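Write out this protein's structure.
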Amino acid sequence: MKLLKYISGAFVAATVMASCTNLDETLYDQVGSQNYYNTKKNVIAATFRPFEHAYWSIQSRHVLNELTADQLITPTRDGWWDDGGKWRRLHYHTWNVDDGGDAQTEWNGCFQGIMQCNVVIEDLETLSPEKFGFSQEEFNNLKAQCRALRAWFYIRLLDAFRHVPLAVSFNDISKNSEGQVEPKVIFDFIESELKESIELLAQKSSLGGNGSMQGQWTKAGAAALLVRLYLNAEVYIDEDRYDDCAKYAQDIINGVYGPYQLAETWDGPFDWNNEYCDEVIFAFPGSQGYSFWHYQGDTYWWSVPARARYYLKDSKAKAGDHNTKYAASPSYDLNGQLYSYELGMPVQNFRKYDGDYRMKLYKNLGNSKREGMFLFGYLEYTDDNGNRMKVRAPEQPYDLYIRDAVGKFQGMDPNQWPDDKTSTLPNGDHNSGWHFVKYPLYTDDDEGQMESDYCEIRLAEVIYSLAECKMRSGDSRGAAQLLNTVRKRNYPEDKLKDNLYAPDGRASFDEKEMLAEWGREFFAESRRRIDLIRFGKFSSGTWWDKTPDADKHTEIFPIMREILNSNHALEQNDGYNK
């Protein structure tokens, strides 16, 4: 059962029914707490209301962390996807304070979520658990849920903007900073909130997935947020906290905060029944007919061709039609020659190790089963009249042949290359760049269509974080062996000796390979930007159609002009127009 689905559904239904009863009612900007908390269900619904907003808010983070990095692109396609150059500015790191868009949505969305958490935390402080039938332990858990979620929002703000206000109260704004505080203040607040919350949150007690605890912060979830925080502490506050990161990561792996284990297959954490997957530490429950924000255009619904519904057999009525917003950055130039970039080229990065199951063409196998992650080449299907067809470009008279290259191919045969050798973001077409399916896009006939929960934290992230800590401490052998515990599920048995890192196999491991492996395992999981920053590559690196930045100011985003104008106590981040 997906607890949040039913809580949010009941909350929305109650709100809609109440608002439609009397069209002459007087509207207020908030409902008095004393009038709202009447039952135990009221308390639970209020506690988890910020979680639905949090789930919605993942969309802006995904855009900012992937399209500014080296693995995903949004090229212009036959006139589509130019949008005044906004995607180019993300790709080239030339955004400005007037862009608004996703950076502004990220700022506003996170602070809206923080204030929603503050409301609940302060309301719960005024209530008696006994009055509503809670034990003190249950009531403490509810408060800790919102404290952990608030910390999750602050990690995102620290990551994106570094210099942000600290707001801890809805009722008493004197407790909040008027302008920004130092990153260290935010960091310390997050750290203390999570450490205290770990003691108050519930703990998963057995294997079999999160079940009804899906969508709730647990001790392991809060500890995993500390792992994220400490892993990037050198970036955020110029402090080495890798030892702290390693300690919490090891404790999670050892089961100190509950039993978790890796899924047997790479796609287990993303599949339709992932509430039963023990790799999932925290996920936002998603379901058709309720909320499914990861099945939206700004996340994973637009990572396939516009007419992919013919190949996938998933109706456009479920979440709108597909579109071509996201593709993999290319590996080949327009002479068919492999690029030599150290960064980007994600398809080639996967190809490095033979037999990778993720490299198979994505196919729906029926009965809510899939194989492969990428869409490439011709996408063939049988139409309603029994004719064998190929997916076509939208508004253009050519069959798609999806290539690991960006250019204007139109209807060229697979072995042909265009005369125009300009391979840039503004010069693509609908053939340009492999597409991908991270969360399954099952057919209309499948029970699991759009039933996947959004996996925010999984055990593999904790393992990779610990591996990086070991690598940075000089224990590359230990790091490689940890990574192999995850990597071995991606390859056939007869390929393991060649593909696993030494000493388990013959593959070499070093710092470059650590970053590359983050890119493979967490491809398109909304984190590539911070991984590049942590390895010193985001502003100084070179990848397809991207040269190094002039300096490091692009490692955080500007505070957009509309936000600055709304609060004159705010100061612009260095390097941006003040």
